[in-house]
Amino acid sequence: MSVESVKKIKDGKRFREILAILRKHQFSQGLTPAKLRAIFEDLGPTFVKFGQILSMRSDILPQEYCRELEGLRTDVTPLPAETIRRIVSERYGRPWEQVFSDISPQPLGSASIAQVHEARLVDGTQVVVKIQRPDIKLTAERDIKLMKRAAGLMKYTPIGSALDFNLVLDEMWKALQQELDFGVEADNLEEFRACNRDVAYVTCPQVYRELSSDGILVMEYIGGYQIDDAEGLTEAGYDLDEIAVKLVNNYIKQITVDRFFHADPHPGNIRVRDGKIVWLDLGMMGRLSKREADLYMGIIKTLYSNDSLALTDVLLSLCQYKTPPDRLEVGACVDALVAKYKSMGMADINLGAVVTEFVDMLNRFGVSVPASLTMLGRSLLVIQGMLAGVSPDTNVMEIVADYIKAAASGPDAIEAKAKSVMKQLLASGDRLTMLPEQASDLIRKAGSGQLSVNVRNSCSESEFEGRYALVNRIILCLLDCALLLGTALLCSLAAMPHFLGMPWLATVFLAAAAVVSAVLIVRGRKKK
Fold first, then answer.
1. Which among 167, 174, 281 is positioned nearest to 222, based on CA atoms?
2. Beta-strand pair 126-132/114-121
3. Does residue 265 contact residue 258 with C-beta atoms inside 8 Å?
4. pTM across the whole model
5. Residue 34 needs a FRET pair 20 to 30 A away by CA distance; which of 62, 170, 195, 213 works?
6. What phi and psi values does residue 41 have, to the nearest 5 degrees?
7. 194, 206 in Cβ contact below 8 A?
């Protein structure tokens, strides 16, 4: 039997398994958050990882689904030590003993994509080895293709029009491909270290490039304490409040300055060692353009200053939409949310929840928010929840506000602002020289009574359409009255040839008046 035939048999068997699981959970009858989580768990470790990735994407799935998927765990039964050592030898093309003096038989972690072991290099250096599970790429790619086949059947079900399954699967596959490529993670580690080179209290593991490849990653061993280990950190003499402030400051820096942020900042991915916060597992990182970072900074500033008009402009500039939403209606909703948080104390504001609430509000207007915003909202929620157990009195919003104020008054910000002002002055130099003359001309016209001012009343699109329709009906009524008056006047002219007992021109006017009356009646009924 050929390899292709064996592959087809395996694919067919797996496809039947997927369909059986979907039928078991009555997928075609509706999809609740709990049902979606159960389906992913039954489909196996690869789909559990898919579900975890999707939990960060509230721009694709509703919030209640994302919250349910956050409970998924990727821990799986670890591969035996002999199997791990054999895989390492195969990846290097030589016995593993030539690279490592020892590989611990007990894994530090075992997930659906990879298994992590403590090890020692032949020179005695303590390291961590991340080994990708065999055939995981082929398995994941096969499952995605099979799920796309199953998704094609879903368009005939009641939930087919509610969710674009192909879009969901494409996003899952795109995110998973990044995690499957250890070369990407190695690049992320080096870039993150470079971004935080001047930050004394932040670092990440050093990567051993010469020993790493597509399916194996060798990194510096990180001991210390997990960031939510309050008892251990306190016993070691750390100030928990200081750790919380430094963590949030660094995360805001990742977003607004580096534009390269950790997309999964749960407690297991952050440790404290030798007075430094160490970020782990940089396989999935978020990236922002300068425009996006500036707009996110603008969101924080406008929230802090309670400027709902500016916040509306920033949000609509950041998002995408096929048809422009009613700006006044969006502004009213934004104003209501700003008023809600304005009445709350700074310590009671949950920044992650704020982002989530604004995303939900924009979605109701058919506005598509960028994936980076939903990832940030979810990350901020995770960080604030994590810090609640470490430093309960610490508030993320207060730290962010202090960071923004410090950044705005710092030398770099002042220099950038000065450069921006000078650039604008140079660009508008010609217009500035004309201002005195133009001001003098305005004063002269005002004194002589020649100055006129047009006042424009802004209204929403719906209000404008209503007023436009009303004006049209008034014009038609006036036209109808004029035609009827003309008919009456023409009837007094005896010299004109008659038609249907009236002067022929009067007959034409009467017919035109009847048509206009009919139009008015029809439009009136449609309005009702």
1. 281
2. antiparallel
3. no
4. 0.69
5. 170
6. -65, -40
7. no
